[in-house]
Design brief:
The N and C termini lie far apart (about 40 Å). Strands 2, 3, 4, 5, 6, 7, 8, 10 and 11 form a nine-stranded mixed beta sheet that branches. This protein has a two-stranded antiparallel ribbon with strand order 1-9. The model has no long low-confidence stretch (mean pLDDT about 95). The chain is of the alpha/beta class and about 290 residues long. It has a single domain, classed as Rossmann fold (3-Layer(aba) Sandwich), CATH 3.40.50. The radius of gyration is 18 Å and the shape is globular. The chain contains eleven helices and eleven strands. Helix 2 links the parallel strand 4 and strand 5.
Length: about 290
């Protein structure tokens, strides 16, 4: 049965929001916060940057929220507006009121957010679980996408890693700081969560999400992706097999761009942002177009 995401109780919700507000101080550039109505509830949006280039929309990873992008937002918004979303049905300041009943609903949700923001065309960037959500938009509603970038898309172009899911479930059942730190060190080596980030991630475990997991796309689905696509992975990632993904994409979508970085894993965004973001922005600028808001 489709679910509506929510915290397990009001105390958990308030504790999460309190830490969230503290973490907002890490956002390094001026921003405007908006709560945008959609069919699925209100979506919390953080708008940063100015400029006339095609805007970027950011979709975060599992258990995170829009503040995840604080480490890279300054470089992303130098010449354009960037919208960072709290995904509906996940912990954050978005409030889900209706369930997402199918994969195409993610595309509907993004389209409704863009309608409310009065934005016509965007570059969509998703990280981890956010990459799954981004590729669903590329599949079901590509007409508004100038490009799509998928950072560490586990279980999208190859089989999901049940080992990762099992370790996450175990850490969720035994929520000691030691176990959660151990999971993060294994999942994202090279990137250590700050104290506030860690506290927020731990409190997010008290949220019961209203969305499902990624699945491996069928060949016909991958071949149908028509928007310019960049896939970024760490060579040491535990959520996918980057070389197999690259080979599959070369066969099915030869025009897709794939970048695999040695010496890093799933925490690539925090580990080597000085390499990832210039590559992302080069791709974005190559696909900026004249249809701007």
């Amino acid at each position: 049965m489709p679910k509506i995401g929510r915290f397990k109780n009001e105390a958990s919700k308030q504790a999460y929001e309190s830490i969230y507000r503290e973490l907002e101080s890490t956002w390094p550039v001026p921003s405007t916060q908006l709560d945008v109505p959609t069919s699925f509830g209100t979506t919390h949006v953080r708008r940063s940057g100015t400029g006339t280039e095609t805007p970027i929309v950011l979709v975060h990873s599992l258990g995170a929220n829009c503040l995840q992008w604080h480490i890279v937002i300054e470089d992303l918004c130098r010449d354009r507006v960037v919208y960072a979303l709290d995904t509906i049905g996940t912990p954050g300041l978005s409030v889900q009121t209706s369930p997402l009943t199918g994969e195409s609903d993610f595309a509907t949700w993004i389209s409704e957010v863009l309608n409310e923001l009065e934005v016509d065309r965007v570059h969509l960037v998703g990280y981890s679980q956010g990459a799954w959500h981004a590729v669903l938009v590329a599949l079901h509603s590509p007409e508004r996408l100038a490009s799509v970038t998928l950072i560490e898309p586990g279980g999208v172009f190859d089989k999901p890693s049940w080992r990762v899911l099992l370790k996450m479930v175990r850490a969720g059942m035994r929520r000691t700081d030691k176990n959660i730190r151990k999971l993060n060190d294994w999942l994202s080596p090279g990137y250590v969560l700050g104290d506030l980030e860690f506290a927020l991630a731990k409190e997010a475990l008290n949220y019961r999400p209203g969305i499902g997991w990624a699945r491996m796309l069928k060949d016909a689905e991958v071949q149908s992706i028509s928007v310019p696509m960049l896939v970024i992975s760490g060579a040491e990632t535990v959520v996918s097999n980057p070389e197999q993904v690259a080979a599959r994409l070369a066969d099915l979508v030869p025009e897709a761009e794939v970048e695999i970085y040695a010496g890093t894993g799933h925490g690539i965004l925090g580990h080597i942002p000085d390499r990832v973001i210039p590559r992302l922005m080069k791709f974005v600028r190559n696909h900026d177009d004249a249809k701007r808001t």
